[in-house]
Amino acid sequence: MGKRMKKVKQRKKKVSIKAQMKNQWQLYLLILPAVIYFFVFNYMPLYGIQIAFKDYKAVSGIMGSAWVGLKQFTTFFHAYYFKRLMINTFLLNVLYLLCSFPIPIILAIFLNQIRGEKIKRMIQTSIYVPYFISTVVLAGMLYIFLSPTSGILNVIREMFGARAIDFMSESSMFRGIYILSGIWQSAGWGTILYIASLAGVDQSLYEAAEIDGASIWKKIYYIDIPSIIPVIMMVFILDCGRLLSSDTNKVLVMQTAGNIPTSDIIGVYVYNVGLGSGQFSYTAAIGLFINIINFVLIISVNRISKKMTDVGLF
Fold first, then answer.
1. What are the domain boundaries of the chain?
2. Which residues have CB under 8 Å from 26's CB, separation 6+?
3. pLDDT tens digits, residue range 36-85?
4. What's the CATH superfamily of 70-133+188-309?
5. What is the H or E stretch that residue 151 is in?
6. Could you give the CA distance from residue 194 to residue 233 in angstroms, rounded to a whole number?
7. Measured between alpha carbons, how far is 291 from 285 in angstroms, rounded to an integer?
8. What distance in Å separates the CA atoms of residue 131 and residue 210, rounded to the nearest whole number?
9. Inter-residue long-range contacts of 304-307, CB under 8 Å, 24+ positions, other chains counted
10. pTM over 0.90, yes/no
11. Interatomic CA distance for residues 169 and 254, integer angstroms
């Protein structure tokens, strides 16, 4: 009887799936391009992961290249710059996460308190615009504004009798410039999810709070923040899964001979070694190692989040 029941349930599931696909074929057709995109660019390339365990030669191809096991990984672990690369990458991303993560939340909460629609739209537009500035243009702006000869910051410093500083060549300044410019560029765009969540809050909660004499700060503390905690935790989990995946393009265009001690991160190293020296197996091993660490981080943070807030991605 037990086996028959299982077979009946399986048949019902198959029928229900087919019925859903027939009744909602428009929705499946709508998500088809996204499925194809992820399959082509995210799943098919997984076949090439095996070159991390081989001495890949373009002439021999992936299957024809010699198997070397964990040689590429051990080479990276014993590399002269391994420690510096790991420290620079981890510090840059952790500091960026700690400094940038709260800003979109704060902006979204304050935007939600603005009642004038025109003013609200104007502010939203002004903080969204920087996100659409390309990385190269952003770096060019930084070089202009922070120039030791004509940069506005150095002009102001010289007005007060201080000497000019070449900010882009100072290794101690690199992380601060990277983080502040990143916040300016992406904070506004990051508010979209939180604003959408706050827009779905029941307005009767605010009306009841006003009747009870609650101040704006109490409304924020007791209504706004609890309403967006699930979204906050989901975004935080995803951000923690990228702690060793920096914006390589931005670091590349910001890197100078003077700031290499702090700007030399794993992404830049992979770019220089992989494309510059053609060591594809070596850089594939580095990429796989970083992705494994990111995977472990996202699983760990997700479990902690589920225990503490009952919110998780899976």
1. 2-51, 70-133+188-309
2. none
3. 999 998 888 888 889 999 988 888 888 888 899 899 999 999 988 899 99
4. MetI-like (1.10.3720.10)
5. none
6. 11
7. 10
8. 36
9. 305/233, 305/236, 305/237
10. no
11. 9
